[in-house]
Amino acid sequence: MFVLRAGATLLLTLLALATHAQSAADSVAARKPAKKPRRVKVAALPIVFSQPETGLAYGAAVLPVWRFGQDTTTRSSNARVLAYRTQRKQSSASLTHAIFTPGERYFISGEAQYFNLPIYYYGVGNDTRKSEKSDISYRVFILNQRVLKRLRPGLFVGGVYRLTNLYRIRVDDPLTDDATRPNWLLERPERERQPTLTSGLGPALLYDTRDNILSAHHGNFLDATALLMAKGLGSDFSFTRLQFDARHYRVLGSKEAEHTVLAGQLLGTFHGGTVPFRELAQLGGERMMRGIYEGRFRDRQLLAAQVELRQQLFWRLRGVLFGSAGQVQPQVTDFRPGQFNLAGGAGLRIDVNRQDRLSIRIDYGVGSGQSSGLYFAFNEAF
């Protein structure tokens, strides 16, 4: 109940902020009608949210959106600076960016993130039990960067580099939550409980015809990467990661109004070699399989899909319904049609910047394994 009350308080606060921002913008426009639109629009917001991975959290976010040059065929670029602390003594700071250079000749995207995280670790597998969660904690710094060059409209190729520095790994309780077995992390190789650096690079291909990268109404998206984590690059573990992310968006009903959008996503992650527990493919979280705790199900290989129906309601409010299915397995040949975990729910969107489709996302989901979650985030899940 406390989480729901906090969510209601946050919603009212955000509605007030959005109203104030819009009225201020309208007032400025009325006084200075001849002034050119700003090339950089910045939303700075205090944030309060709650989700299964964090409990109640508080912090601040800065969300700039801009377009290089006057060519409107170049899609808007965006970034996000976010910092928060939670009631579970977690802390995080991150910078993410997605940049189209003039004429979309290059696409540069990536993230730099720091987490100080006590988390629930359920071990490895597709059918872990809720009562057997283990308490562990660690600190991690993640750097992920890609630079892609356009070959033709919508098609980009280039390279990606990823670094993960995991340290201060700790078993907070020697037993699982139901006290029936040792903490799951104690069953992993001892080397994985020591400070770990993974470093890798590889090729990347992107096909992206979305009309807007924050909240697409129509278009297609295909992102494929291959990463080699190698000791020659400073990595403590050697393994490969192949990943694809395919999405489709279409307008239902009136093409002019674009009030109803159907979105779908198919995601695959496949590993070879020796993969430490933190780098295994994971189901759950605020983007894929909402309603399932992030990392509740993890293993070497992953397949997941989700669909979402997005509907304009009134004023700055939009509603969504979503559903997803996903599975993790040790080998690709182990995937079975009847073993998919399921999740689904509903959500609300509050448009902060309607022109660039910058929004605040509130979702509630339920999922397999007696899971549920309330999520506060920025922009669409996919």
UniProtKB/TrEMBL annotation:
The keyword Lyase does not apply. The keyword Signal applies. Residues 1-21 form the signal peptide. InterPro entries: Bac_surfAg_D15 (IPR000184). This is BamA/TamA family outer membrane protein. Its main location: membrane. Keywords: Membrane, Signal. It is found in: Membrane. Pfam families: Omp85. One of its GO terms (cellular component) is outer membrane. Residues 157-366 form the Bacterial surface antigen (D15) domain.
